[in-house]
Amino acid sequence: MSASDATPEATRPEPAAPEWDAPLAEVPLLWLDLEMTGVDPETDHICEVAALRVQGGEETERLVTLVKPPVPVGASEAIHHISDDALADAPTLETLRAPLERLLEGAIVVGHTIGFDLKFLRAAAARGWLDPPPMHALDTRLLARRAWHRPSYGLRALAEEHALPLPTHRAEPDAIAAGKLLEVVARELHASTARQLWQSQRRGDPIRFRDDVEAILRRARDEGRAVRVAYRVPGRDPFIDTLEPWAIEGPRVEGRLHERDVRKILRGDRLLWAEPTEQRFSVPEGFVSSCP
């Protein structure tokens, strides 16, 4: 089950833990999905948990269980098909505190619209049932919105497009679909660390480059080398072109796009990735940057 999470990534500090800068293949990821009795964490409760700890593409530990909530499932049964009878003998959330904490230790949480799930975990922590969940997580819905222009960013639509295991509004298949989607979108965004993905998904002001993209652009400008870039245009799929980075001012880069043969100012937050080339360039004589 999912709903929009309005908390902007831009308002949060950067992740500080070292696992955010390690190669993705070496970092424990926790593919996480929850099912709930409704959409309000103040009055509704978790009724199913799937937490799969994955490292290097291999599952190392898991917790998949129904959870007995303190309220009836109500109308949500029509979505996840979990009945009150099925939950009658399920463990309560308090009894899952230790195994969840073990799975979360040193791992980066991954999920589709994961902010919604984290709100319910925070509500459970406020009630004293669980330890507080991590502040940062990777949201495959936000990442997909960065990587592609699609009519739907629902988990099922994206899973079908990329031939991934299909979600079913149950915690385990939905967690697996989100984890597999992360692998696809990481390749699409040329991201090798979780921090690069987190910087790709953050929204709002101020406009910022992804750290690795800015470093590549600045080195290319200093060395007079063109770079291949992917640039996201609102309402369309990203385009790929070769850029001569003539000037970098604040969160923008100005230069010439080869295939389009046009001088252009590109916003840092819309540059999805950058790769250096051996192609040399010289800044035109008399060039004055127009970057705001």
Order of helices and strands: EEEHHHEHEHHHHHEEEEE
Main β-sheet: number of strands, strand sense, barrel status? 5 strands, mixed
Tally the beta strands.
Answer: 10
Number of domains: 2
Straight-line distance between termini = 42 Å
Structural class: alpha+beta
The largest sheet has its strands arranged as 3-2-1-4-5
Q: Which percent range fits the helix content? A: 25-40%
Polypeptide structure, described:
The protein is an alpha+beta fold and 292 residues long. It has two domains: 9-201, Ribonuclease H-like superfamily/Ribonuclease H (Nucleotidyltransferase, domain 5); 211-280, SH3 type barrels, CATH 2.30.30. Helix content is 28%, strand content 25%. A five-stranded mixed beta sheet has the order 3-2-1-4-5. Strands 9-8-7-6-10 form a five-stranded antiparallel beta sheet. The longest helix has 18 residues, at 171-188. The radius of gyration is 22 Å and the shape is elongated. Mean pLDDT is 95; it is low at 1-7.
